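In the current project phase, the collection of sequences with tokenised folds has grown. One resulting record follows, to show the layout:
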Amino acid sequence: MMEQRVEDSALATRLAATANPQLSSSFFSVLPAEIRRMIYVEYWRHNCLYEDAGEHTSTGDSTHKYHIINKVRFGSTVRYTHSPCVVSDQNSHDFRMGRLDLARGQDSEVHTWARRIETDWAVHWPCEELYKNTTRRPQSTFMPALLTCKLMYRECIESIYENLTFVFTDTTTAESFIDLHPPPTLRSLELCIRLPVFLTELYCPPSFQHHPRVSSPDHPGFDAHDNPWATLCNALAHRITLRRLNIWLDIQNLRAWDERVWERRLLKPLAAVSVPRECFTLALPELGPLGKGRGEKNGRTYLEGEYLDRAPFEVKRAPRPNYTEAYLARMLANTTLLTIDAGPAHGGAT
């Protein structure tokens, strides 16, 4: 990643050295830089809009939000692409379980809504479907401006990073992209992440601090200070020009959040992020009632009381989807659909 940053810096230097000042263009020679920046913002607003977002999406600020996706799922190669975010507020009411309940008896609908509950894109499932169902991806709406000339390219790139919100649904893509763009470029980020359960196990009670390093098939030897979540938090902490940060968290596990997560330890690395508290939102699942798998006695300590008051972010809690119910509903629907597809059994003549 360091080599990539050096290459990008060299490219920026070459662009600055070889860019034509465009003195014959009234756009550059007459309009002040402040006016040009306002024009770029209006261009993003009116031209970077995806028209066919689907029936289950919301608009609002979504025209200024884009998912950053790594097209290469395995290995060290990084190939980013972007796709419109059509969810204006990831902290708004999550209606997926309600739709699953309404779909009972309609196996194809049950399967669809159960899959939407289980996806790692979580509340951004409409964005996932938009991205995956777009078979022929149109030319990026940014490209006409970026390809006009080197001078406009430099100004547009700066405007894009200053005025758009970048959305991520996994820790690795988020960390690599943030690390690739040093300050003061990125201003607004949104994370919607279902953490793998092995990551949450790293943040166990103090009595287990000497537990052997947890491994996963792809990433051996992680500990509480060296893992994708810690690396992402460190990358965020170094972005001192961030003006807005919205994080939505859950875990990839059927068990309840408060049975698997030690909140204060897991979220402690976020304390180093320098975003104004009123612009830093952390959305977490609701906690269960006291005395039922909760409390100091089992080492799982939560953001409550004075800890919540001292937190550098605003915490919003909401009911967590019932992943067990969604899983069982999908399995039952799959069985029924397979039976229908197979048709009635035909016995031979005797």
Q: What stands out?
A: The mean pLDDT is 81. The beta strands are 65-70, 80-84, 165-168, 188-195, 244-251, 280-285, 314-318. The chain has one domain: 15-337. The first strand starts at residue 65 and ends at 70.
